[in-house]
Amino acid sequence: MSLNPLDLYDIQSMLSEEENAVREAVARFVDTRVIPVIGNAFDEARFPVEWIPEVAELGLLGSSLPAKYGCAELSSVQYGLICQELERGDSGLRSFVSVQSSLCMYPIYAYGSEEQRMRWLPSMAQGKTIGCFGLTESHGGSDPANMKTRAVKDGDHWVLNGSKMWITNATIADIAIVWAHTDEGIQGFVVEKGMEGFSTQEIKHKMSLRASVTGALFFDNVRVPDANRLPNVKGLKGPLGCLTQARYGISWGPIGSAIACLEEVLAYTKERILFDRPVAATQSAQIKMAEMARRITLAQLLALRLGRLKDEGKMVPQHVSLAKWNNCRMAIDIARECRDLLGGAGITTEHHAIRHALNLESVITYEGTETVHQLVIGRELTGINAF
Ligand code: TGC
Ligand code: FAD
């Protein structure tokens, strides 16, 4: 019996019928709608906004939230599989879905009032209202407690001043979930496009996540109604709680990038004849590809265990840190190695490896850099905070 080279341990058979159905539906969308155009979109530094209604129609926005808000009410494993399949297409597309779902819809659901949920979630699930999440500031994203953005109460409004940097969806968003210091601790505000004093600017010249919108947010005495403040959380645990949701998805996503790269080099090295034999027939290429399959298999098992823990309500942020760190590192190493196996052909976007490798430079940095996650685990092991 020959094994599936992209699923050596037949992890698919560990998934329920419903889980496999979601995976297959997203895989079809990625194969037919994303892969044929992604090279050009990346070259043109364009996020294909025409995908938004289609991912909404598939139920991928806020997919874990309850049906009463127009969401698909899927399990955590299903959300993970969605991220994996989307990122097999491109990290930019998975980023879009992560930000909308885990960083914007989740805080409205978890920390918002019922009125706020009904106001925003159904139209966000339909892709009609797009969100962005403003936590990072230019002076240091790893240490968000040091944010300078501040909101001061003025009657039934808050006056917001400051700025946010490196924000996915910044210039295409209708609403921004913005975290700011207040006299009562860090709080979250829903800032709406068009509010006076609120502006955005796209960040150009990116060599990574080119098929994704990244920008800055500026707040110059923006008057935000108290009705737009998320009432049910105060302190850094608010934004960090959202990050745990998004990092969970990112623990799955890069498996997709790695699979796309391995699939590509398996085919290429069989066709590429050098010194009278296919590159795939050399020991060094086989060892490299075997190593990739080993690391992908371990990452798949780790992600599935993480997902099962989350669905059982037993997942803690430290579990997520280890998986995000391991699976991003696995994928970036594989993408770079695959680029090498493609030789010169590997430097253009006609092949996938370099695009994934470049994207993963962002993925390993955002949502907590590799160092941040290593230090979270170090603190767990030793009980000593080394930040
Ligand atoms: P500490 O001050 O000890 O804790 C503050 C409170 O937060 C709680 N907490 C968490 N809650 C939920 N999830 C987590 N992951 C949590 N980590 C901590 C903690 O229990 C405490 O609660 P309480 O009730 O006692 O007040 O903070 P810390 O020392 O744990 O945090 C330090 C550190 C470095 C880990 C944290 O600041 C950090 O994670 N920094 C990295 C920042 C980051 O990841 N930024 C990402 C920005 S968003 C983004 O990148 C989006 S890209 C998305 C895309 O395009 O796909
Ligand atoms: P820094 O925090 O300045 O880190 C610089 C270096 O210092 C890193 O190598 C880091 O690991 C290291 N370092 C940090 N702390 C320590 C320590 N204690 N010991 C040793 N080394 C340390 N943010 C949002 O809020 N919303 C978004 O939607 C969003 N989207 C993004 C999209 C892209 C494409 C990118 C690139 C970033 C995005 N970010 C977003 C920001 C992202 O979360 C930050 O880039 C990230 O948290 C790191 O912050 P920084 O870039 O300021 O780097």
Quickly describe the structure.
The chain is of the alpha+beta class. The protein has ten helices and nine strands. Helices cover 50% and strands 15% of the residues.
Please tell me about this protein's structure.
This protein is of the alpha+beta class. The chain folds into three domains: 11-125, Acyl-CoA dehydrogenase/oxidase, N-terminal domain (Butyryl-Coa Dehydrogenase, subunit A, domain 1), CATH 1.10.540.10; 131-228, Butyryl-CoA Dehydrogenase, subunit A, domain 2 (Beta Barrel); 237-382, Butyryl-CoA Dehydrogenase, subunit A, domain 3, CATH 1.20.140. It has ten helices and nine strands. The protein has helices spanning 17-43, 51-57, 76-89, 91-111, 114-125, 237-271, 283-311, 317-341, 353-363, 370-382, and strands at residues 131-134, 150-154, 157-168, 175-182, 185-192, 198-202, 214-225, 273-274, 277-278. The strands form three sheets. A four-stranded antiparallel β-sheet has the order 2-3-7-6, with helices on one face. The chain has a three-stranded mixed β-sheet with strand order 1-4-5, with helices on one face. Helix 6 (237-271) runs antiparallel to helix 9 and helix 8 (317-341) packs across helix 10 (370-382). The chain is globular and about 80 Å long. The mean pLDDT is 98. The site of flavin-adenine dinucleotide has 21 residues, from strand 1, strand 3 and helix 10.
